[in-house]
Amino acid sequence: MTVQTGSRPGEPGDGIRRELPAHVADHLRVELRRAVAWNKPVLFADCVGWAKAALIGAGVPASELARHLEHLTSTMRRQPAGDAEARAEIIVSAALRALPDLSAEQVVLSPTEVRPSPLATLYFRALLRGDRQLASQLVLQSVKQGTPVKHIYLHVFQPAQHEIGRLWQLNRISVAEEHYCTAATQLIMSQLYPHVFSSQRIGRTVVAACVSGDLHELGARMVADFFEMDGWDSYYTGASTPASGVVQAVTGRRADVLAISATITHYVADVERLIGLVRRQPDCAGLKIIVGGFPFNQTPGLWQRVGADGSAADAETAVALANRLLDQSGARR
Fold it and tell me: Averaged over 129-140, what is the pLDDT?
């Protein structure tokens, strides 16, 4: 869906009619359908916040988004009345009213909830300068001085990557810069693996995966590493894993837990389909499924809608939840 819009009479503007970028309009349409089907207005509100930040980062005024939403509302009013159409109009109208208060700094990934530490700030600046060696030295020296690896993951890697994602969304750094920073963090994480894999095993196995199409794998990898540090055997399938591959990994490894990551609302439907496929496997009867990522953090109870056993806001919480679910089911360590 692409909508041409222009300045209203009496409004500031250049008078030039513009098109909302196709990928933004398409994403809004898809997320509106999903919000209506699931009766979750917050899903569409999150999408509108993403669109506002993306447009402003690209130099497109937020008024263009407002006009697009107004067009959607007027279009639905001309359609035959029905429950779905009525819900859609309510959802879009609410998003339109909230638009002025939505921060242009909103990000796709989960917002950082802690104040960045001095180490996180130095690490982040080193990455932006392209100084991967300094970033590595900062982390390794801190660990050598006694900083727990879990602390590095939660309070250095995580806030740095959130800020990098924010800058990318606002068009302040390029895709190449974002990819460099992420690849550098993955490399430095691998340098910490002697610490990650040193814990005594407890006889439990987790498969961690990103659904097909989702290329943001760092969060899922951090989750897998936290399970390793807790003594689990982890099997991390990487980015954009086909559903059939996830099922094969879960059954082949006889996993106790499947941890699924979805970084944006676009992939929530894929998470639901994957869970449904796994649930239909006879060998997965006792499997516990945990979901995580931005849409689940923003929408309480969404994990129930997709058929999971629970949701975790971060890697540390995911491990605690997995242990609790298995302990409650009577699974042995």
Answer: 96
d(CA 139, CA 120): 9
Task: Quote the CA–CA distance of 320 and 333 in Å, as a whole number.
Answer: 14
Distance CA 262, CA 331 (A): 27
CA distance 38 to 272: 12
Q: How far apart are CA 111 and CA 166, in angstroms?
A: 9
Model confidence at 225, in pLDDT bands (50, 70, 90)? Answer: very high
DSSP conformation letters of 156-179: IIHHHHHHHHHHHHTTSS-HHHHH
- Give the pTM: 0.73
Name the packing angle between helices 62-77 and 22-38 (round to 10°).
50
Beta bridge partners of 5: 18
Give the torsion sign (CA, 220, 224, 230, 232): positive
CA nearest neighbour of 107 among 294, 315, 261: 294
Q: What mean pLDDT is predicted for residues 135-163?
A: 94
Residue type for position 332 = R
Tokens 């007027």 sit at which residue? 74
Looking at every residue in the chain, the average pLDDT score rounds to 84
- Mean pLDDT, residues 246-259 taken together: 96
The pLDDT value given to residue 204: 96
Class of domain 118-194: mainly alpha
Residue boundaries of the structural domains of the chain: 4-101, 118-194, 199-329
CB atoms within 10 A of CB 2: 12
- Residue 274, pLDDT above cutoff 90: yes
Q: Which CATH superfamily is domain 199-329 in?
A: Cobalamin-binding domain (3.40.50.280)
